[in-house]
Design goal:
heterodimer; A: alpha/beta; five-stranded parallel sheet; 14 helices; 46% helix; 8% strand; B: 321 residues; alpha/beta; seven-stranded mixed sheet; 12 helices; 12 strands; globular
Chain lengths: 375, 321
Amino acid sequence: MTTSETPLVRVLDATGRFTPSDAAEPYLPLIDAITDAELEQFYRDMVVIRAIDVQATNLQRQGQLALWPPSRGQEAAQVGSARAARPQDTIFPSYREHAVTRIRGVDPLDIIKLMRGVSHGGWDPSDPKNGNTRLYTLVLGSQALHATGYAMGLAFDGKSGTGDVDSDQAVIVYYGDGASSQGDVHEAMVFAASYKTPEVFFLQNNHWAISVPVSTQSPVPLVQRSAGYGIPSVRVDGNDVLASYAVSRVALDEARSGLGPRAIEAVTYRLGAHTTSDDPTKYRGSDEEQSWAERDPIIRMRAFLEGRGASAAFFDDVETEGADAAEDLRSRTVELGPPPASKVFDHVYSEPHPLIDEQRAWRDSYESSFEGGAK
Amino acid sequence: MPFSKALNAGLRKAMEDDPRVLMMGEDIGKLGGVFRVTEHLQRDFGERRVLDTPLAESGIVGTAIGLAMTGFRPVCEIQFDGFVFPAFDQITTQLAKLTNRHEGRLSMPIVIRIPYGGHIGAVEHHQESPEAYFTHTPGLRVVSPSTPNDAYWMIQEAIRSNDPVIFMEPKSRYWQKGEVDVESSAVPLHSSRVVRTGSDVTLVGHGAIVTTLLQAAALAESEGTSCEVVDVRSLSPVDYEPILDSVRKTGRMVYAQEAQGFTSLGSEVAATVMERAFYALEAPVLRVSGYDTPFPPAKLEGTYLPDADRILEAVDRSLAY
């Protein structure tokens, strides 16, 4: 099956018109049931996180962050899938899921802490305010195995497949087209298929693994890979927030119902750099970027909402909220001081460890030797 | 009781004591593991607690991490030492660091069992000593019992630990018999142990070579040299006091190991003993190791692996200072 023959779930075209593809047919009742308030929320999510993302990119350029992985262009895939998850679901992000984490309740400042070099983690996944969102994982694809093991645990404990979608739990794991080449992703799919885990593999195909195009990752559409493991797999227009929401909702509910894992390839595009360390002009053409900019998920959703009669005041309000969130992030970022020196020795182990204790004591003694006149 | 049966009994006891303990690995269920260490555990505890996993080492450790996040205490079996490397990334970049990354909000109570070392005449990748890779990784604990009694107790302590433990099993000793005192108190996970007292030279080692050290000590005795033998047991952290006490008594130390010598556990212990007991030493601390070559074909392993004669040669060199 070639790319052109691969069914794609899409309901909004690039101009925001409601023109469902054939593959979208099964999802239309679900999309029809989305309320106006929910539609506006999807748009609000996308605009606000983009403002935060642009601000964070700027903060890196100004030397306030060591690194920032921009999410610009991928908002619809992230917002649709994150809004589809139920509160009891567990999220395993990679490192670009800024929209997903924010929707689950994680403070963007906690991501800033990681990128500023204040923390290796940032937030507490067990704190209810963080919506069962695990930490970012920087090693590509590692989290796919953690998610699968977690989903195995849910199944072993009877926390999925009871038939109650309001309490049954599922896991959604995010990874990219580059990570799809990692062995861990493949081993995760083997385990997931073998143990019928309540889990959704959510692949954001943003077309570029830093400078390497997706065509180098795979000669076939990536959706065929997960299908090859026996995992029902869907390809969705990742720049269409409604389609992303619908396919994710169905896949998560099927997974939580004990039907086994599901996979989604969201076809989207990273409009910015992979991270602030690379320069996309070195490896891809402006024509390509321009063609994807014309399919921007925010522009598309705005046109759709305007077509439904959303007011100018609504859009102004959303813009203001984004600007406020960005400004808030800036002011709180520059106030973040370094962590205490003792953090070097903290939590290396859960239980006491003599080598760490010795080195902590040595450092304390070394530092105190400078007191009273030493530089 | 043979070492492998003692391990089996320890695993069984841990599963009985805590329903959240589960075993996972290749061929550990119906077959009972290629060394039969998990024999009958699946029969008695079921397929949910003893998982015959797909053949994927990174998958075994990576999913164990996810299972631990939901409250299980997984015990992973890596079938042979040389096959731990496909899981190396999950062990070193994830398992070892997750508690630190979570700032102590998450524990990783996972045990990775690795049969290691030579003397079984196996083919490539089936008799290596990769322990130094793990001792070099902060966040991991690394232990290696050398007797059936230690195997029985230390596996239970490893499973009880809230930190990840790399549990190195000297596979050439699986069939070695010894007393197992199931009534005694537990062997602490991180304690070295004097297994033979002596006054002239301290012989130190871990795992299978402890038996060789005892052979060397017996031979030395017949030539009039009294050797003390210390079993390190815990490779990270090392319990130094019994080693230092012994060196302060004898003034001489030889560290023997199957692993390559360069940047090895023996190197670390030797350096620490020289730092902390310099004035007690009558001679430099000497190391006897596998050579810094790939583990050779089995027909040459007798050349590669330190035997009692090579240890005694080092004892003679030490005494000559």
